[in-house]
Every structure is written in C-alpha cells, then in structure tokens.
Design goal:
By secondary structure, this protein is α/β, with parallel strands linked by helices. It has two domains: 92 residues, 60s Ribosomal Protein L30, Chain: A, CATH 3.30.1330.30; 150 residues, Alpha/beta knot (3-Layer(aba) Sandwich), CATH 3.40.1280. It has eight helices and twelve strands. Strands 8-7-6-11-9-12-10 form a seven-stranded parallel sheet. Strands 1-4-3-5-2 form a five-stranded mixed sheet. Strand 7, helix 5 and strand 8 form a beta-alpha-beta unit. Helix 4 runs parallel beside helix 8. The radius of gyration is 21 Å and the shape is elongated. It starts with 5 loop residues before the first strand and ends with a helix.
Length: 254
C-alpha cells in the first residue's frame, strides 16, 4: 500500500477549511460534499467524480477508491474524530464536488416539495426517486437544502443520479408545461384510481402546515392517498414515496 501525507495538527489551515466544509455543506460558498463510510463511497464508484480522501489507516478497501482520488491525506486519529460528522465513523471520509443539474435534465415526472423542513423526509424521497427511476425533485425556496448534512449522509448516491433543482417557485414547472397535482389529506382524486400522464408535477406540502393554500389553489387537480378515517395524515416522505411508486406501477404496466 502507498504511504500518504500525514496531517496531525488541528491548526493546519487546510484542515480548518475542510472542517468548515464538513460541518456546513449546505452553505452556498461550499463547493464540496462530505461522504463518510465505505458503502457510501462504493455507491459513488460509477460516477465520473474525483475524491479528496481522508483516511485514518491504510487498508485493502482503500485500493478500490484510489483511481478516483485526486489526493489522499492520512489523518491522525484525533483529527479523524474531529472532522467526522457521525458518532461511529469508519476511518474514511471523502469530499466530492457538489452535483449540478440543469432544467433540461428533469424528467417528465416531478415531486415539488413545498417548505419541507425534515432532512429525513427529503433523504427518503431522494432514495425512492432513485429506486423508481422516473422522478426528479424540485424544491421551494423555504425547503431544507438538498445538501444538508443529514440528507447527504442518507442518500449521497441519489444526489448524483436523481435530477433536482432547488429553491424555485411552482410557476417554473407550470411554465415548462407540467400539469400540477396538489396532494391533500382528503377530497382529492384517489391515488390508486387515477391514471397519470406526463408531464406531471406532484406537490407535497410542509410536514406540519400541509400544502400552501396558494399552491393548492393553483393546482390543476387535487390528489388524495386513501386511508382509514381514523388515521392521521402521512408524513411527507411516505406520501411522496407512495405517489412515486404508483406512477412507477402504472408505467410498468404499459
């Protein structure tokens, strides 16, 4: 195994810079995403991206990452503990350049996320969109960042395979010809009895407040996921995933 430069001081200017990137990847002036763990890095193996690798110890699994590595730095144990954002790290962390998606890469099926605040829900929706293979994600200006550290940890590979646009109004999709479906707890057309045609955008509302009334008013149709009367409304991650899988089911029957 090759030997790599060893970094031991927390006062090193470069280490301080990378610490800031690791702690706040959602900041606009941060060009990098921190990726931790061997599995997450293996999931990026087929992506045409370069890695800046930080490792604690040299081990055989590292060899598979070296072709993508622009640079490898060996960190002293206390520095790896400091830069890691998880309680039990695997002694490997990489920084990769943030993905950038253009409007013309969006698919004919879109989830529009209105003021979602829980990064766990956003991560779930990214993973489901990747699993179904049909959907893109578009977020409102007040939705949690797709580069939030929890989203990145939960679904980093999806950020490079699911097209997404952040921080735009629903009118951007309307102007591009999407039919807008507003998801509501009751009173809409039932999900499993409604045929969908492209191009369609499904609007998922905030976890607590639901869909913005103005967005609901601007929707072409309303859509409801059937539930038992006594059930509470589904959270955003579950609701969006059910919609994506129903579209997936319908497309698979064609």
């Amino acid at each position: 195994m090759p030997r790599f430069p060893l970094l031991e001081s927390r006062q090193n200017p470069n280490f301080k810079m990378w610490m800031g990137f690791a702690e706040h990847p959602e900041e606009p002036d941060c060009p990098w995403l921190p990726v931790e763990g061997w599995k997450n890095l293996a999931d990026l193996a087929d992506q045409p991206i370069e890695l800046l690798l930080f490792v604690h110890t040299e081990e055989p699994r590292l060899a598979s990452l070296l072709p993508q590595a622009r640079e490898v730095v060996q960190l002293a144990p206390r520095l790896m503990d400091a830069i890691s954002q998880v309680k039990s790290h695997q002694s490997v962390l990489a920084f990769v350049q943030k993905p950038e998606w253009a409007w013309d890469r969006l698919t004919s099926w879109v989830l529009y996320l209105d003021r979602l605040q829980d990064p766990g829900n956003l991560g779930t929706l990214f993973r489901t969109a990747r699993a179904t293979g049909f959907f893109s994600l578009v977020t409102s200006p007040d939705t949690v960042s797709c580069f939030n550290s929890k989203v990145v940890r939960a679904s980093v590979a999806s950020l490079y395979s699911v097209p997404f646009i952040q921080g735009v109004g629903l009118e951007e999709l309307r102007d591009r010809g999407y039919v807008v479906w507003g998801a509501v707890p009751a009173g809409g057309r039932l999900l499993y009895q409604t045929p969908f045609e492209p191009a369609a955008a499904f609007v998922i509302g905030n976890e607590g407040a639901g869909l913005d009334p103005l967005l609901l008013k601007d929707s072409d149709s309303r859509l409801t996921i059937p539930m038992q009367d006594e059930s509470e409304s589904l959270n955003a991650g579950v609701a969006g995933s059910l919609i994506m899988y129903e579209v997936y089911r319908q497309r698979m029957l064609l």
